[in-house]
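Bench notes, afternoon.
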Amino acid sequence: MEKFAIEMILYDEDSKPKATHRQSFVPFRLLKEAVKLQEYVSELQDPQKMKPETIDNLADFVVAFFGNKFSREDLLDGAELSEVMTVINQIVTKINGGANPTLPPVE
């Protein structure tokens, strides 16, 4: 059974992909941070509660998930918002033991 990879594409200033990073598992080390991630994600649901630190913390989590192969600044400047949110949702799904979000539902 092949593991699916969570993918993050970073773009250059011309909106062209410059780097693609893949990670096929959630390192156990991130479990402690994942508990905090749930709180950050709930803040994203209510813009009134959102703080700049929340965005930095989410960015740091994504960077750590991909093994620190790029910086927070690289992510903030070179990642597309919806792609970052997809990555966060995929990580949350894996942490919660959910189904593979990249596969179609079994009928």
